[in-house]
Amino acid sequence: MKVFDTHFHLKGTETSAQELVKSFDEAGIERVCLIAPGGRTLGTPTEPNAGEASNEEMHKGNQYLVHLVREAPDRFVGLARVNPLAPGATDELQWAYEHGLKGLKLFCIGWYPEDERVAPIYEKAASLGMPILFHTGILGDGRNSQYHRPAGFEVIKDFPDLKIIMAHVGWPWTDEAIAVAGMGPKFRGNYQIHVDITPGAPLLWRKDVINKAVNYLDEGVLVFGTDAGPGNCVSYGKQVIQSIKTIFTELEIPRSVQEDIFWNNAVALYGE
Ligand SMILES: [Zn+2]
Q: How many A from CA of 8 to the centre of ligand 1?
């Protein structure tokens, strides 16, 4: 079964595209969304967005990504990063699009998904046909997770041409994420809001979460991701793939549904 990893973090210190391709071969990953390095999200309790990278800094990460993707366009899909609260965000996204990047990764820190200041970047991404991958769920590193609750993403309905992916099934707000993603196909007849099954949920919960997500949501909604990085691509990537495959087998998920999650749904978003 072919694997499309829709969630992979670059550090900006990768040795070469060839090295990366080699590790994806070893991990059994055919195609992969690489997230541009950059962004700091340091913040303080009163100014959570303080210290976030400017769009000039984000541009360096996006440039780095463009070069990498060009080395192996049949294997890599590039996800740009921008700071939507800083000047130049929509221009940076336009630049990324013109240079072959296919999506955007946003991290709500110091702003909620429904924040009106972010609407221009949603409109831009929608007009360029670039899906936005959002972190959703708890951060688990002590930072406040208030900005990342799945219910905030109901606002995406106001941007009917925009497609988003909520990462980690919004763990621990997994029912909330599933309910929000269920709105699209169940009530609108399209797959506007997707969910990646990237862990996320610790093993104790994972099977239950996947059971509910797979059985409640339409077959076009879920995508697979590892959330790995260059340092642990092979070991951790393989482990995540195996963990999901084992759960699918235990839950007796039909092979065609597994193929949709591991491959077809990501292809529908980003192309083959
Ligand atoms: Zn991630």
A: 7
Cβ–Cβ under 8 Å, residues 253 and 244 = no
- 224 Cα–ligand 1 center, Å: 12
The CA 130 to ligand 1 mean position distance, Å, reads 18
- Ligand 1 center to residue 7 CA distance, Å? 6
Written as six digits, the tokens of 48 are 């959570």
Ligand 1 is a single-atom ion; what residues have CB below 5 A from it? 227
- Model confidence at 45, pLDDT cuts 50, 70, 90, reads low
Looking at residue 42, what is its pLDDT?
Answer: 63
Could you tell me which residues come within 8 angstroms of residue 199 by beta carbon, excluding any fewer than 6 positions away?
Answer: 168, 171, 206, 227, 240, 243
**Domain 4-270 CATH assignment equals 3.20.20.140:** yes
Domain boundaries, the chain: 4-270
Average pLDDT over residues 145-159: 93
User: At residue 48, does pLDDT exceed 90?
Assistant: no
Residue 229 Cα to ligand 1 midpoint, Å, equals 9
pLDDT in the model for residue 233:
80
DSSP 8-state assignment for residue 143: S
pLDDT tens digits, one per residue of 3-30:
999 999 999 988 899 999 999 999 999 9
| Distance of CA 227 from the midpoint of ligand 1 (Å) | 5
Six-digit token string for 99: 């240079």
Going from the Cα of 95 to the center of ligand 1, the distance in angstroms, rounded, reads 23
Instruction: Specify the 3-state DSSP secondary structure of 51.
Output: coil
Ligand 1 centroid, distance to 100 Cα (angstroms): 21
Q: What is the pLDDT of residue 188?
A: 58
